[in-house]
Amino acid sequence: MTNTQLTLVQIDNYGPWTVTPDPRREMDLQTLQSRLFADLAQFVGARDGYAFFTRFDNMVAVTNGLDRDDHELLQESIANRYPVTLSLGIGVDRSPAVALERATDRIQRVGSAQDGDRREVLSGETLPEADRSDTDLQIAHFDVNDATGKYTDRLNEFDTFIHIEQGYASLMRHLREEHGALSFFVGGDNIISVTPDLTEDQYRDAIDHVEAEADVELKVGVGTASNAHEAGFAAKHALEDCRHRGTTVEFADAAVETADD
After folding, report:
1. Which top EC class is given (predicted)?
2. Which of 44, 54, 122, 255 is the most buried (most CB within 10 A)?
């Protein structure tokens, strides 16, 4: 049974800051956001977690294996190097969607995202080490079948982007509404989903739904482990099995060894 630990990462009072005392240059804001996400991804990734940029001012991290001290260190590191601070909410549940709802509630209870007096909230309990297991996380790595041949080498970049995003939106909604899974676009034609325990048939149903609704064909590799890195790396190997075997759904061999990816 999965036991997902998620952290909501919210920039404190970010909207008002971007226009105080005057509106800031847009590319300066984009640069700040991208660097902040890169630092978050590096920090969490070094501890075998995953981070997703979502809306940049609100980001989501899969933090199984990170404790409260790690979260405090992240806040301290960002505050020392950026003109903004972070509030962090932590939630744990077998359903990723419920875990995120719990993490979100932890921050929202303290105050609004645009409350100038609310800074560096750290609320929520991490998964105790004694309760962790090798089945805490199921990660699914999707990609589009022959995206290069169908889109990249035939269409202009914006039309390609529309096709990929339509497929992502269809998958994201379906997995969230049907299974409480959370899906994130990670670049190119790749989507990573943090899921509860789903079966091969449930993944096939999701792929069929996206093809019927968005006319985008997907395949998926699935991995399970105690942390996001190991589960995600196993999912990548399973996705390669899809490519070699011409299949649409593959689950990773439990014996897959992880490496830096």
Report:
1. hydrolase
2. 44
Residue type at position 92: V
What DSSP string runs through 195-223? ESS--HHHHHHHHHHHHHHH---EEEEEE
Do 4-132 and 137-260 agree at the fold level?
Answer: yes
Q: State the average pLDDT over residues 165-191.
A: 97
Instruction: Report pTM.
Output: 0.94
Cβ(47)–Cβ(70) below 8 Å: yes
- C-alpha–C-alpha distance, residues 181 and 195, integer Å: 4
CATH 3.30.70.1230 matches 4-132: yes
261 has pLDDT over 70: no
In CATH, the architecture of 137-260 is 2-Layer Sandwich (3.30)
Which residue, 4, 6, 12, is CA-closest to 110? 12
Cα–Cα dist 209/100, whole Å: 25
Domain residue extents for the chain: 4-132, 137-260
